[in-house]
Design a protein that fits this description.
heterodimer, A: mainly beta, five-stranded antiparallel beta sheet, B: 116 residues, seven-stranded mixed beta sheet, four-stranded antiparallel beta sheet, 11 strands, globular
Chain lengths: 112, 116
């Protein structure tokens, strides 16, 4: 079953704007991860936030985690055309054993 | 370069003809896993391996087999492929698996399989 659900399904913005994607999940987690996928290519790990963390930064990426609401957000600041990709959240659940459970992703298009 | 290598990149085969998709990682990762990605269904885990000779079923293991005889290799075997196994397949590895891992996954570039 899909644990994470991303919102929106698709997002189109202009270069230089910020992009915010949200993820909701259902069960308790050890950590939540964000991945990026260019069309038909492998997923690339962007950032991992642990269940006891609330915010994490990596370059132009900012991730927040609210375990009380079972939700996370990924903010990409000053977006570039090269950021165009699908973005997935994945949860490592406390009871899911050894598996990451992925949402269906947000398709981000950054227009030059 | 640290990476997960899958082969082949593209494969078209006929129903019932056994095939193997290879996966190799050069990072000394203990954990390896196979996923399939389908439109509208997202990524679903097929099998995973916590270490050599330790494998377990994921969410959609039917019709697939795996083996982990060496740490670096984790082949995916389709004994009798069927058209519903047409999909994009990804191998992934991580330093450790399990609920205390807190490590991200490294993914291969994918294998696009078509079964006719």
């Amino acid at each position: 079953s899909q644990q994470g659900e991303e919102d929106p399904q698709a997002l189109s913005i202009q270069e230089g704007e910020n992009a915010t994607m949200n993820c909701s999940y259902k069960t308790s987690i050890n950590n939540l991860q964000w991945y990026r996928q260019n069309s038909g290519r492998g997923l690339v790990h962007l950032i991992l936030i642990r269940s006891n963390e609330r915010e994490k930064h990596s370059g132009r990426l900012r991730v927040t985690l609210d375990t009380s609401k079972k939700s996370s957000s990924l903010l990409i600041t000053a977006s570039r055309a090269a950021d165009t990709a699908s973005y997935f959240c994945a949860t490592d659940g406390e009871t899911s054993g050894s598996r990451l459970t992925f949402g269906e992703g947000t398709q981000l298009t950054v227009n030059p | 370069e640290a990476q997960v290598t899958q082969n082949p990149r593209y494969l078209i085969t006929v129903t019932g003809k056994k095939l193997t998709v290879t996966c190799s990682q050069n990072m000394n990762h203990e954990y390896m896993s196979w996923y399939r990605q389908d439109p509208g269904l997202g990524l679903r885990q097929i099998y995973y391996s916590m270490n050599v000779e330790v494998t377990d079923k994921g969410d959609v293991p039917e019709g697939y087999k795996v083996s982990r005889k060496e740490k670096r290799n984790f082949p995916l075997i389709l004994e009798s492929p069927s058209p519903n196994q047409t999909s994009l397949y990804f191998c992934a590895s991580s330093l450790f698996g399990g609920s205390i891992s807190n490590y991200g996954y490294t993914f291969g570039s994918g294998t696009r399989l078509t079964v006719v």
